[in-house]
């Protein structure tokens, strides 16, 4: 044990300088990450952390063991390797596996710093901590609102659930079963609004049970238990007027867990009726709902977050040579494997879109400067501009690409030179060969790493289309600012691409990110396409390279975490206190088998029959055969279905189209920003 501790300490000692300098470089590049605490862990500890979602303490449950076993098998049989895990916390906590090489550790550290910046500055993560009173003082002495204390929150939740499991009056198995029911619905929250706890006493109680009768019961000052036992739902139904039909909520409720927390009950099998939940059940439901809201932003920004971290990791490791000469090949090999892995790869897709954002914004900056040159218009742009000359003018000067070789020639008054860093370098206070970025300002680094002069993007400016040129010129007023192209290019803002990236990082999630920046140019450049299963051939075929088709296909996988969107439509369906859920259909069918099992879980949180409206596609066998012979796709018929579980059996019945027509989307609903953000 002591040897293990000493081994970890040696690794930690070796990483002291990389950790400090990676943080310094990240801030020099304009990132503003949470402070990060780094921990060295062994192989088994890393697998445990991954199983626990990046935290050291969670509530007791079989799911963690299953995930731990899966992670171990992946490492043993599939060659998978865990390099790091970092959580959204303030300060953030990152765990490094001690067996990793120094090159891998440096890559992880630079990757983590970018993740910590994303956690701290993306609005979707901030929604969980809105209203928090936690504050801290940063390095400049300024007070700032602190981010989440997630490790503390999850540890407290774990302790609470552990206490219930050890309570002699509560069966441990019953607690685990209840957790299973809730986890089945953990993605059925409204992730587009800030988290807030549900009121303990339902405010709508009077509206639920029928106002006149309920008011009379309230006058008797009876306990809730007595009300439920003596004046049960059946009795209350009998007291209502025949024409009375109380429905709620007024609008479909997306936070299914919150609705069940407020109005749900448990089913008493002996008494064959619904009864109030136990205190431990309502508390657990709220704890797990809070955790679902905490983890929601990570699910909503997977592509953006991983792409953001990969972008800055690559810039630091290769662009600023944070990877030493003896580490570069190993790092490049591992990075290529990460970016080249199959399937929908969030690292690769995210990185490609961020680079495209940077390039398009930098190109716009250059085009706007050139359109302000006397005599150059969008109509004669291609004939008037020498793209080779433009490219050469955008190249950084030699002293920027080779700082150590020109240390004595640097001008401390140049806005791209950090005068304090230059003095320290000339005084031998640090190795300028290893850390040339310390001599440069943010502006200097932006010019040093300007995207449009990189070999793979050298033709990006010349690819500007007439439509974009006209659109850019349409809103320009001072279109004769410069007398020459040289004068215009001397005025280029080299930071504009990075500034635009930071703006997007603050406000977008994966769905809005894809919607705005997955253009036809991007699809063509990166060879994206859609494929579908065809009934005619019985296999999968490429169906489109149109960016709108690619966009819809991708966005369907990220809207609502890639899960079906199900809302509460009525908590008093058919005036019988039954729950009616509705699947908001966007052309993708539910798995009916899974839907049945989910209804069984939901019944345990509602205590009364549960219904689900959905739409399915049905194919006529004859039409399928004809389509195969003619090599075309058969036209499906969309049919409304209602699935119902009453505690004993599941039934599936056809419903009239009028009952489900409102569930169909004329187009996929990608509007995922809070209303106030759209103002």
Automatic annotation (TrEMBL):
Location of region: Disordered: 131-151
Domain SpoVR protein-like N-terminal positions: 13-363, 494-562
Residue ranges of every copy of the SpoVR-like C-terminal domain listed in the record: 564-615
Compositionally skewed regions (Polar residues) per UniProt: 131-140
InterPro entries tied to this protein: Spore_V_R, SpoVR-like_C, SpoVR_N
Full protein name: Stage V sporulation protein R-like protein
Organism of this sequence: Haloarcula vallismortis ATCC 29715
């Amino acid at each position: 044990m002591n040897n293990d501790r000493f081994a970890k300490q040696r690794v930690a000692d070796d990483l002291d300088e990389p950790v400090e300098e990676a943080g310094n470089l990240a801030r020099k590049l304009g990132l503003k990450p949470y402070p990060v605490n780094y921990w060295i862990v062994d192989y088994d500890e890393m697998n445990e952390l991954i199983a626990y979602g990046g935290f050291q303490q969670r509530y007791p449950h079989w799911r963690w063991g299953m995930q731990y076993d899966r992670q171990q098998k992946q490492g043993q049989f599939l060659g998978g390797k865990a390099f790091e895990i970092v959580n959204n916390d303030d300060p953030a906590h990152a765990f490094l596996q001690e067996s990793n090489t120094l090159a891998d550790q440096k890559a992880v550290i630079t990757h983590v710093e970018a993740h910590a910046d994303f956690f701290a500055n993306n609005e979707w993560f901030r929604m969980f901590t809105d209203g928090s009173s936690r504050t801290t003082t940063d390095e400049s002495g300024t007070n700032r609102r602190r981010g989440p204390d997630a490790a503390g929150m999850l540890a407290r939740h774990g302790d609470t659930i552990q206490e219930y499991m050890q309570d002699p009056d509560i069966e441990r198995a019953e607690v685990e079963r209840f957790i299973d029911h809730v986890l089945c619905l953990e993605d059925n929250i409204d992730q587009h609004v800030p988290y807030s706890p549900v009121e303990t006493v339902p405010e709508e109680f009077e509206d639920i049970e029928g106002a006149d009768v309920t008011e009379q019961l309230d006058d008797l000052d009876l306990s809730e238990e007595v009300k439920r036992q003596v004046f049960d739902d059946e009795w209350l139904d009998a007291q209502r007027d025949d024409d009375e039909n109380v429905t709620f909520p007024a609008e479909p409720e997306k936070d299914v867990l919150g609705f069940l927390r407020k109005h749900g009950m448990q089913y008493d099998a002996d008494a064959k009726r619904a009864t109030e939940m136990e205190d431990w059940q309502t508390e657990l439901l709220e704890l797990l709902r809070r955790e679902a809201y905490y983890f929601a932003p990570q699910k909503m920004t997977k592509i953006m977050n991983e792409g953001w971290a990969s972008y800055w990791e690559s810039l630091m490791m290769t662009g600023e040579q944070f990877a030493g000469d003896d580490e570069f090949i190993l790092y490049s090999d591992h990075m290529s494997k990460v970016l080249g892995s199959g399937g929908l790869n969030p690292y690769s897709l995210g990185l490609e879109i961020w680079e495209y954002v940077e390039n398009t914004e930098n190109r716009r900056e250059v085009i706007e400067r050139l359109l302000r040159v006397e005599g150059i218009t969008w109509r004669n742009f291609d004939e008037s501009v020498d793209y080779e000359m433009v490219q050469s003018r955008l190249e950084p000067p030699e002293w920027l690409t080779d700082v150590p070789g020109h240390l004595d020639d640097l001008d401390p008054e140049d806005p791209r030179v950090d005068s304090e860093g230059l003095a320290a370098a000339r005084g031998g206070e640090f190795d300028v060969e290893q850390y040339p970025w310390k001599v440069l300002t943010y502006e200097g680094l932006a010019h040093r790493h300007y995207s449009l002069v990189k070999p793979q993007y050298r033709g990006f400016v010349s690819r500007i289309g007439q439509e974009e040129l006209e659109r850019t010129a349409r809103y320009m007023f001072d279109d004769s600012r410069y007398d020459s192209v040289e004068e215009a290019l001397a005025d280029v803002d080299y930071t504009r691409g990075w500034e635009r990236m930071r703006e997007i990082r603050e406000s977008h999630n994966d769905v809005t990110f894809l919607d705005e920046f997955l253009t036809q140019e991007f699809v063509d450049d990166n060879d994206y396409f859609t494929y579908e299963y065809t009934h005619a051939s019985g296999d999968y075929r490429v169906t489109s390279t149109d960016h709108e088709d690619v966009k819809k296909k991708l966005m369907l996988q990220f809207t609502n975490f890639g899960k079906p969107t199900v809302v509460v439509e009525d908590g008093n369906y058919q005036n019988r206190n039954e729950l009616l859920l509705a699947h908001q259909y966007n052309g993708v069918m539910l798995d009916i088998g899974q839907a049945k099992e989910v209804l069984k879980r939901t019944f345990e949180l509602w205590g009364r029959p549960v219904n689900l409206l959905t739409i399915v596609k049905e194919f006529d066998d004859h039409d399928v055969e004809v389509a195969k012979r003619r090599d075309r796709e058969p036209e499906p018929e969309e049919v409304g279905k209602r699935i119902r579980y009453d505690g004993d059996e599941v039934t599936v019945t056809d419903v009239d189209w009028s009952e489900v027509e409102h569930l169909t989307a004329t187009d996929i609903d990608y509007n995922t920003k809070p209303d106030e953000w759209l103002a």
